[in-house]
Amino acid sequence: MEGIPRHAKRRSRRRIGLAGAAVLAVAVAVPVTWTAACADTENGRAYFYDPVTGPGNCSLPASGRLFVSVAAGEYAGSAACGGYLDVTGPRGTVRVQVVDQCTKCRKGDLDLSRPAFSKIAEPEQGVARVVYDRVRNPEVARPLAFRVKAGSSIYWLAVQVLDHGNPLRTVRIRDGAHWRDLRRGGDNYWVFEHSPGEGPFTIKVTDVFGQHATASGVDLAPGRVQRTTKRLYGESAVTPVTQHALPAPPTPIPPPRSPMFC
Question: Which ranges carry the RlpA-like protein double-psi beta-barrel domain (predicted)?
Fold first, then answer.
C-alpha cells in the first residue's frame, strides 16, 4: 500500500508506508562510543516523515518509533530489512531499524521517523547532513521469531524472520535429510514453493556475517508470531551505538569578480 508522507520542508516526495507486526525496535541515542560498527560509513542527508497507515515493503512495524526508510539501492529487494543504522547528525546520534523503502530517495538519503530525526537535528530544519553506519550485532530485546504468511499451505510456504538484528543472507528449511533454500521476496518474506508439507518445520537462519541459528517447531500457522529461544549472537558481541564526526561542509566558491573599467 502506498502513501504520501508529509516531509518537513519537502512535500514533493512519495514513499511507501509502514507495516504492522510484533517486532520491538531497539534504538537509543546514548551512550555513544567511537568504535566502528560495521566499517561501512556513508555520508548523506536525512529527512523525516510521519508514516501513513498500512504495510510497507519490509512488512515491519514502527512500534519502536525510531526507524528509517532507505533508498532502493540500499533496500536491495528487502535485503536491508530488519537491520539497523547508527545515524549521526549535528545534534547527536540515534540507532534506527530499517523498516521500509523510500522510492524517491537517492543514494545516501535517509527518511527517518520524526522522533528519530529530532535526536540528530532540529525538526524545523527539515533536512540534515548525516554520517551513518550499518550496525553489526545491534542489541535486540527478544530472541528470533517467525511469522508464516497468510495463504501459506502444505503446497506453498512464505515465512518472515523477526528480531534477527543483522541483515540476513539465507533462510533454509529442513526437507528430510536435506536443507532447502528459501527465496527472498521483496516484502521481507522468504518463500518455499515446493510443497513444504504440514510442518512443524525446522528453519536455519544465517546473517550476512555468517552467524546462524536453527529453530525447530515452527508451525504452519499463518499470521501468528512464533517466538523461539534462539539468537544469532550473544550479548557479549553486541555493538554499542557508534558516532562519527560529521565532515566539514563544502567551502563555497566565490563568484567571479566583475571586470573593472575606467
Answer: 81-132
